[in-house]
Protein AF-9 homolog
Amino acid sequence: GVTIHRPVIYGNIATVLTPAERETSHYPDHTHRWTVAVRSAPSAPDSDVVGGADDLGYFIKRVTFKLHDTYPNPTRNIDKPPFEVSETGWGEFEIQIRITYVAESGEKATTLYHHLKLHPWSITFPMPNASAVPVEPEIPSPENAAKLGPVHSWQYDEIVFTDPFQNFLNLLTAHPPTPLPKASINKKPVPFHSSNPASLEASLKGGVPEFTSAMEKDEADRLEEAKGKIIKEQEKWRATLIEKEKELERLQKLLTSKE
Ligand code: SLL
């Protein structure tokens, strides 16, 4: 009954190529430079990298990033940290990320998916009475996108090992992960995630985001609030249903009395 976990993040950073970079590139249609990575969740102090405080090489043997078929050799095997791939390109696509563990772990590989994000985040809030058709956010011009700074898209996750082999457990306990800071140390922004729309504003101000343990509590609070809203809605609609059923009964009676 032993479980042990390691907090990781996976995702990408993307920047707009400068006109000079575009001119010297072999691919004049490429607009962005990006890096997709799997890293430990905590960031190193005073670092401008998101995550990556700990080297994950003691338990991860290989990370395979499967890029879009428009790339040469789209299957990229990375056999030592940093587990990341940097490329240039013009389009967003789904990247398959396969994490293989060290042989002595006896663990099956884990497969994750990340949608490469090149264009700045924007949220179109659903307006009451607006058409139900989702609005595609407009892609800003390269100049405007460049002004907004790098785009970050990171997902926090925990790799959980249940009843690991004794040797592997020893290996894991010999490498305890750096704990996440409670709050961001140098006032770094919270990484933007669509499940936390309030973080959009801070993410557009720029700065290198950082994962903190406060984010977990914030998310629990958001879920609690959402649950409360759902219960209220449920009560409202249940009352409406009871009212309508009464109305139906009344009209049916009226109908039979007239027959
Ligand atoms: C799209 N479904 O249409 C996506 C495909 C493909 C991205 C995006 C460069 C490849 C290369 C590149 O950015 N491919 O020239 O090596 O948006």
